[in-house]
Amino acid sequence: MTQSTEWSQETRTQKKGPYRADQVGSLLRSEPVKKARLQRSAGEMTAEQLREIENEEIQRIVEKQKEIGLKAVTDGEFRRAWWHFDFLEGLDGVEGYVPESGIQFHNTKTKARGIKVNGKLDFTNHPMLEDYQFLHSIAGTHTPKMTIPSPNMLFFRGKLEESAYKDLDEFNHDVAQAYKKAIRAFYDAGCRYLQLDDTAWAVFFSEKGQEQIKAFGRKPDELRQSFANTINEALDGRPDDLTVTMHICRGNFRSTWAASGGYDAAAETIFDGLNLDGLFLEFDDERSGGFDPLRFVKRKDLQIVLGLITSKFGELESPDAIKRRIEEASRYVDLNQLCLSPQCGFASTEEGNLLTEEQQWEKLRHVIEIAEDVWK
Question: Which spans does this entry mark as compositional bias, Polar residues (predicted)?
Answer without folding.
Answer: 1-11
